[in-house]
């Protein structure tokens, strides 16, 4: 299933999916009710349907594959075999990988086992209230049984763009952690079968590019056979192109896509290459139709993301909705660059506040940081009442980061982001896309990462947070090497940065890379792929016509902020659009 709600309760429990038209998502409803057990959901018509065998109900939320060391690891595992494996021994879950949550319910004993994948990129939540226990893929459904807002998480979101302690916007509702197992009968038991940090810390071999390419290609092979009529992301950058190099090499039947404005580099570059190499390519243009549907899709992305994303991601909803007319399975380059190259940007998975407070261990007061951006008049609650707890949460996080620095040195940030930041940012992207397509991520593959981080390749991450473009070009060489081994023709066409990947491997042509890069950078001025400032103003103007009454953010004050922003034609400010997006979700009961 790609969306579900489970309740263990004696209370009456209505199906929250009755108000959803499954046809919109090429899906069907699922319902199972027996005594205290209530299971509802949506499953793809061409995907994995929940199974009932004897006294067990089982389903996979997400995508799952066999680990590479197993026989027939290229073959997509079926749910019945997975279920039998974990019934025999729960430790057998280690034989699988992917972006999944496994749900196993013993209908006779009225107990449930939930297993999160090792990397934990899929969003799922749980809530316990006395003898009642709930699990869901959506906070929106859990609001039906618990609508109390966690104000501390609101403050964390505004400071760091996501929760830093595993809490959600709903009080006492928790995220599942990576590698976590929850078992519930009359009590809740937690355990862990995998720790992300354990793949780091000890270099056991020298990096072998041939072995990495073998594992990378195998990862793509597994993802390709998970679905039907696969579409691969083909943008102007390196990540998607490198995946496509294997699909071409292996002679697969596949389509490609990207989205952006017509003649923007996110569509122009792949379209040009596709025409020359006879690659099937489908551009999704963010044109007049997109602009007309912008507000509608903005509200969808806010709700589908459980309030974790904001209006500026509406292009994903529009694009994946268009793609879902042809496919429900996407192979993307998600989390490729972040796991292969040192991070240098402060972005949503690690904003400037997060970097300063936890990585630089600044002594800045959290209250002062909050007040420097947001007036106390914005809030419908007393912020000071929550600052002490917020400081305790922050101090605990600082202690965790200090421990990571002590044990893993320059790799601390990568472990931290894999444990939290990537999940909250890229996991949220996968989360709101799930209604239309399953996003399959070859770079974020457990076997691939375990190999990579056990070699001396990890030394490249010593250059994290260094603003030196030479380090970035060095980090891109691995893509060029993979492309050269798989399909060399892709190395001769320039990426959106202005230079062909092959130049990074040629000592005679390497000196031309800076010149080509800066020439392309100058030529791109005034030709953005995404005119977000214009689009966001449409969303903000629509907001001014709406009435909200949740009382968590001061409606009148926020509207005055928005009016001033629009009237003064202030430079694009995502903090405004995030506030309005959050207000939209808080009021969307």
Structure description:
The protein is of the alpha+beta class and 589 residues long. It folds into three domains: 3-150 and 165-195, Aminohydrolase, N-terminal nucleophile (Ntn) domain (Glutamine Phosphoribosylpyrophosphate, subunit 1, domain 1, 4-Layer Sandwich); 209-342 and 420-489, HUPs (Rossmann fold, 3-Layer(aba) Sandwich), CATH 3.40.50.620; 532-586, no CATH class. The protein has helices spanning 79-88, 139-142, 151-160, 209-224, 239-249, 265-277, 288-292, 294-304, 314-323, 337-340, 352-359, 366-373, 384-408, 412-433, 446-452, 469-475, 477-486, 512-524, 532-544, 555-567, 574-586; strands at 3-8, 27-34, 37-44, 51-53, 56-66, 96-106, 111-116, 125-129, 132-136, 174-175, 180-184, 188-192, 231-233, 255-260, 281-285, 329-331, 438-440. Strands 2-3-1-9-8-10 form a six-stranded antiparallel β-sheet. The radius of gyration is 24 Å and the shape is globular.
**For this entry, what is the oligomeric state of its chains?**
single chain
CATH topology of the largest domain: Rossmann fold
- Kindly report the spatial arrangement of strands forming the biggest sheet: 2-3-1-9-8-10
Question: Which class best fits the helix and strand makeup?
Answer: alpha+beta
What is the number of beta strands? Answer: 17
Overall CATH class of the largest domain: Alpha Beta
Average pLDDT figure? 94
CATH homologous superfamily placement of the largest domain: HUPs
Helix tally equals 21
* Residue share in β-strands: 15-25%
Mind telling me which CATH architecture of the largest domain this is?
3-Layer(aba) Sandwich
Radius of gyration of CA atoms, rounded to a whole number: 24 Å
Distance between the termini: 23 Å
Global shape? globular
Percent in helix: 25-40%
């Amino acid at each position: 299933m790609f969306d579900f709600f489970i309740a263990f309760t004696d209370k009456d429990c209505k199906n929250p999916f009755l108000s959803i038209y499954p046809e919109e998502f090429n899906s069907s409803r699922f319902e199972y009710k027996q005594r205290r057990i209530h299971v509802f959901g949506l499953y793809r018509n061409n995907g994995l349907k929940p199974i009932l065998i004897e006294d067990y109900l089982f389903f996979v939320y997400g995508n799952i594959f066999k680990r590479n060391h197993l026989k027939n690891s290229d073959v997509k595992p079926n749910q019945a075999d997975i279920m039998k494996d974990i019934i025999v021994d729960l430790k057998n879950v280690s034989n699988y990988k992917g972006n999944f949550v496994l749900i196993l319910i013993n209908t006779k004993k009225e107990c449930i086992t939930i297993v999160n994948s090792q990397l934990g990129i899929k969003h799922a939540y749980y809530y316990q209230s006395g003898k009642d226990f709930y699990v869901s893929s959506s906070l929106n459904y859990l609001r039906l049984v618990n609508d109390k807002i966690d104000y501390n998480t609101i403050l964390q979101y505004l400071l760091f763009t996501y929760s830093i302690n595993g809490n959600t916007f709903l009080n006492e509702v928790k995220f599942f952690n990576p590698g976590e197992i929850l078992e519930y009968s009359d009590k809740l038991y937690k355990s862990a079968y995998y720790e992300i940090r354990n793949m780091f810390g000890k270099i056991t071999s020298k990096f072998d590019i041939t072995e990495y390419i073998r594992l990378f290609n195998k990862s793509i092979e597994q993802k390709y056979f998970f679905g039907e009529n696969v579409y691969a992301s083909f943008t102007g950058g390196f990540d998607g192109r490198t995946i496509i190099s294997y699909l071409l090499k292996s002679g697969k039947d596949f389509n490609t896509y990207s989205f952006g404005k017509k003649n923007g580099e996110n569509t122009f570059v792949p379209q040009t290459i596709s025409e020359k190499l006879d690659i099937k390519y489908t551009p999704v243009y963010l044109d007049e139709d997109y602009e007309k549907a912008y507000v509608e899709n903005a509200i969808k992305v806010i709700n589908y993301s459980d309030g974790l994303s904001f209006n500026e991601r509406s292009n994903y909803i529009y694009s994946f909705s268009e793609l879902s007319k042809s496919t429900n399975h996407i192979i993307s380059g998600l989390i490729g660059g972040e796991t292969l190259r040192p991070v240098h940007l402060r972005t949503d998975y690690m904003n400037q506040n997060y970097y300063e407070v936890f990585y630089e261990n600044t002594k800045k007061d959290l209250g002062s940081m909050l007040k420097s951006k947001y007036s106390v008049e914005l809030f419908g609650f007393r912020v000071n009442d929550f600052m002490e707890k917020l400081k305790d949460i922050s101090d605990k996080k600082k202690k965790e980061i200090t421990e990571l620095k002590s044990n893993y040195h320059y790799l601390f940030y990568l472990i931290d982001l894999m444990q939290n930041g990537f999940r909250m940012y890229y996991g949220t992207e996968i989360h709101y896309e799930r209604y239309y397509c399953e996003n399959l991520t070859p770079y974020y593959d457990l076997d691939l990462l375990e190999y990579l981080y056990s070699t001396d390749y990890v030394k490249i991450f010593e250059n994290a947070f260094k603003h030196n473009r030479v380090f970035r070009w060095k980090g891109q060489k691995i893509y060029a090497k993979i492309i050269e081994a798989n399909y060399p023709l892709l190395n001769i066409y320039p990426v959106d940065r202005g230079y062909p990947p092959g130049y990074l491997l040629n000592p005679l042509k390497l000196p031309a890379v800076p010149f080509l890069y800066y020439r392309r950078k100058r030529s791109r001025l005034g030709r953005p792929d995404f005119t977000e400032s214009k689009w966001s103003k449409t969303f903000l103007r629509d907001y001014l016509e709406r009435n909200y009454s949740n009382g968590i953010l001061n409606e009148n004050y926020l509207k005055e902020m928005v009016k001033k922003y629009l009237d003064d034609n202030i430079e694009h400010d995502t903090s405004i659009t995030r506030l309005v997006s959050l207000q939209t979700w808080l009021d969307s009961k």
